[in-house]
Predict the 3D structure of the following.
Amino acid sequence: MTQVSAMWHRTHTLGELNKSHAGQDVILTGWVNRHRDHGQFIFLDLRDRYGITQAVVDPERTPAVYDMAKGLRAEFVVAIKGKVVARPDGMINKNMATGDVDVHITDLRILNKCDVLPFNIQDDGDVSEALRLKHRYLDLRRPVMKNNIVNRTKFVGEMRRALDARNFLDIETPILYKSTPEGAREYLVPSRIHPGHFYALPQSPQLFKQTLMISGFDRYYQVVKCFRDEDLRADRQPEFTQIDVEMSFVDEALITNTLEEVVRKAVTNFYDGQVNLAKPFPRHTFAQVMDDYGVDKPDLRFDLKLKNITDLVSKSEFKVFSDAVSSQGIVNCLVVPSAAEKFSRKDIDELGDVAKNHGGKGLAWIKKSSGTGLASWSGPIAKFFTEADCTAIEARADIKSGDLILFGAGTYDSTKSMLGAVRNFLGAKLKLFDPKDLYFLWVTEFPLLERDEENNRWLARHHPFTSPRPEDLHMMKTDPGKVRASAYDLVLNGYEVAGGSVRIHDPDIQKQLFSIIGLSEEEAHAKFGFLLDALRFGAPPHAGIAFGLDRMVMCLTGATAIRDVIAFPKTLKGTCLLTGAPTIATLPQLKDLHIKVEVPPPTPPSPV
């Protein structure tokens, strides 16, 4: 069919019509969602991003339109003219926002046809992710994906409004940046004008937002793209979006309280008031959450805690435990209430695999039956315990009849990591929480530094501009490993959705920290010179935070991966299946950039 030159301009969207429009002549445009030929009439469900409206073709009234409508198929793009007719009370479709009306078509135009679809977009059936990403334009038509993107826009708008209401300024910072050592590997961009020189894509606007504070813009925010060349996973992408925030003349309490108000307002409005959030958000120290939950971003929608029994098993006959203690490690247990009979050996082996995948060597276990004492314990390691061990462990871990007890032993980090992962796995497997619940909490008092044993040096745990807690400053020279940072993370349902810190605004403290991490004055100026110079010219106390927008929207929409809340994401191997990126540069392109590739051009990356 030839293309129509004069466009019909729609009068209403497909989610808008109701009984108040009955009798009106309308023009509607959209995609054919369903086509049903009942012989006497043809029914068309037309769809756009606003909703679905049912239209009807009557062959007696419009025979030419009827003949054209017979040839329609799913995803044809059409425009119709027609009259809105109210449905009788007994025929109202309560599952559609427009279900109390039909549009009786008087004229029809086919604006574009659709080839055979590679997958059905009318439902959320089992479609491979590779196929979905290759045809992302179709994937985004699926209701769940469309709603995710619409809701992402809604949440960003609510965050902007909440920040604007508190006098934050939306200020852009450069994308072509200077390479700085902030943790992850950077993406480099060659300069054609300056041969041999490279820009870096920013991991975050960290240095610029601190510079803005020194410039006197006391409240800044930005919805900004960030780039990190790191291993990917379900909640990580090579390019991601932050809602970046910085404030002047604040301490940790003031900035976290202010941003908590922003989050509460935005999330409440996002859910149209139909949400219950704790007020204030609970606060836990890093040491507390690691001891109790094994991770620094615990999911507190359920209350399984790790129990430290290191002192109780230091002389155990079970060598795994006693060896861990003698090697300065720990032994923890996780009690799963009333789960002894629910878990078969196969189920427990599955938990062991989870532990191994998170740094553990295995998972020991005991089942507690009815009765008292060691006679009520069963499992491969029960024979290694004494009555005294049994009594002490049951008292410490509050073990009851019918409980399953899981044990981890080894270094502090490996033991906490494996049991923390097992805890999260159990929370989902046993449905210990309502997936619709939202549980925000602050985690504070992170270590300022972490030890790089391989290179025998200290590293900044967050970044080298994070301020030590004032009460720990006296230990910077004598015991830096014990210094806590004025840093804070916001956690939602087991995901870190925001992280930030009070910044160092005193040049002397900044120099001291650089010295501890082995950065000479010359190196520091080479990497961060413009910020260090700026700190000398009246830098105010300031602090900031960055919200991981993709992760927040993933949690708020109930998606299971951030790829499902990003319009055009990359695969786990960093490829774009829609466009074929990354691609091999041509020789003329490389010559123009003064770059010579010394190795044979690589083969294109695999699609998944």
Notes: The chain has a mean pLDDT of 93. The domain at 19-112 is CATH 2.40.50.140 (OB fold (Dihydrolipoamide Acetyltransferase, E2P)). The chain is about 25% helix and 25% strand. The first helix runs from residue 63 to 69.
